[in-house]
Design brief:
Blueprint: E1 2-7, H1 11-23, E2 28-34, E3 38-40, H2 45-49, E4 59-61, H3 62-69, E5 71-75, E6 78-82, E7 87-90, E8 95-97, E9 100-103, E10 108-109, H4 115-120, E11 122-123, H5 127-142, E12 149-153, H6 157-172, E13 180-185, H7 196-209, E14 212-215, E15 219-222, E16 226-229, E17 234-236, E18 239-242, E19 246-247, E20 259-260, E21 263-266, E22 278-280, E23 285-287, H8 296-314, E24 330-334, E25 336-343, E26 346-349, H9 351-369
Parallel strand pairs: 1-2, 1-9, 2-5, 9-22, 11-18, 12-13, 12-18, 13-14, 21-23
Antiparallel strand pairs: 3-4, 6-7, 7-8, 10-19, 15-16, 16-17, 20-21, 24-25, 25-26
Length: 370
């Protein structure tokens, strides 16, 4: 039998397993390696931070997906890969051989920060631990053990969503000490490289919510009570979120795979350009043929492609090619039950956008859990 080793429980592998459960290809021995028995869905994180749904709403259990697709789940972490020998090393000391492997291990927060900030800041990725830390902070605020002051470092889309969601949640606690949330960006604009229409609308939302915005302000230091900026200004913060972009998992550098800025370089079939029996997808991959930002929408779309590739491998058929969309609908949560939609350079802040985002996210979760 052909052994397929799926490394990581990211969005692409979740969708691929769901598709394989319905396709039921013969002649395959499929294994999934994941450090946790469930995976967190990024689309629902802002709503959880804002307090709209519980922590459990984010989780996709992997056991049911593996059961229905005939996949063996290994609840451990991959720490090494030898693509030439076709062996993966696990942190439980075992090794797993494979005929074909797929990497969907995500990315981690790019923490290029002063020592103090690196010590107290909480990276947004991985999502699960971040959500747990936020829940603990909210409980501490409710018990009057911590002041309701938070800061988000990095004003990309994720940073803006988090700042608005945090402010909404802290406001809802009804504390006598007024909540304070700051959004700090070392560059001169919000949403670096983003759409000007979306930027303008989000700036209005941040002002409406009472989020303090600092632009062109590198962080000089931080401790458990405040963030100090290079200008000398001190920002109160008992909780500091690091939404500072993504960097690859460090162990990929030792695999011998062709990499681009540490991410696995793949061609249109999602195969490594140096080792075609290794696939990479989601945030783990760099699409050499059509570079795209690290966004969940691409990871989800790649799931169906990866499942099709696995079926074709089993049948000894030529592989298909993935063509990523050039534009996609972006739905940005505003903390309160509102969202801004943007596509084709046009952004809309309408009541129905929140309902649309909620429908898309929970429909994905329903499919992943069924």
């Amino acid at each position: 039998m052909m052994r397929i080793l799926l490394i990581g429980g990211g969005h692409t592998h979740v969708v691929a397993l769901r598709r394989l459960a319905s396709m039921k290809p013969a002649g395959l021995d499929i294994h999934l390696v994941s450090p946790e028995p469930s995976t967190s869905y990024s689309g629902l994180l802002p709503g959880h931070i804002a307090g709209h749904w519980p922590r459990t709403a984010l989780e996709i259990p992997l056991h049911p997906l593996c059961h229905t697709s005939g996949t063996i789940l290994h609840t451990t972490r991959a720490t090494a890969l030898d693509p030439s020998a076709r062996i993966a090393g696990l942190d439980n000391g075992r090794e797993l051989a494979f005929d074909y492997a797929s990497l969907d291990i995500g990315a981690i927060a790019a923490v290029d920060a002063p020592e103090g900030l690196a010590a107290v800041g909480i990276p947004v990725k991985p999502l699960g631990p971040f959500a747990d830390q936020w829940s603990a902070f909210v409980s501490s605020v409710e018990a009057s053990a911590s002041p309701p002051c938070a800061a988000v470092i990095g004003a990309g889309t994720a940073g803006v969503e988090l700042a608005l969601s945090m402010k909404y949640r802290l406001d809802s606690l009804g504390q006598s000490n007024p909540p304070r949330v700051a959004l700090i960006e070392r560059g001169k604009v919000l949403l670096p490289g983003g759409n000007s229409s979306m930027r303008g609308q989000l700036e209005k939302e941040l002002k409406r919510a009472g989020v303090t915005v600092s632009k062109g302000e590198p962080v000089a230091d931080a401790d458990g009570t405040c963030v100090r900026l290079a200008s000398g200004m001190s920002v109160p913060a008992s909780f500091v979120a690091l939404a500072t972009g993504a960097r690859p998992q460090s162990w990929l550098a030792g695999t011998g795979l062709a990499l681009h800025d540490g991410f696995v370089s793949v061609g249109p079939t999602l195969q490594s350009i140096s080792h075609p029996h290794v696939f990479a997808c989601g945030d783990t991959a760099h699409l050499t043929f059509s570079p795209r930002p690290k966004a969940g929408v691409f990871a989800v779309r790649q799931g169906a492609v990866l499942a099709e590739q696995i079926v074709r491998l089993a049948a000894n058929r030529p592989l298909s090619e993935y063509s990523p969309q050039t534009d996609y609908l972006k739905l940005v949560s505003l903390g309160r039950r509102r969202a801004i939609a943007e596509k084709w350079g046009i952004s809309l802040n309408l009541p129905g956008m929140w309902a649309l985002k909620r429908h898309i996210d929970f429909d994905f979760m329903k499919g992943a859990r069924d």
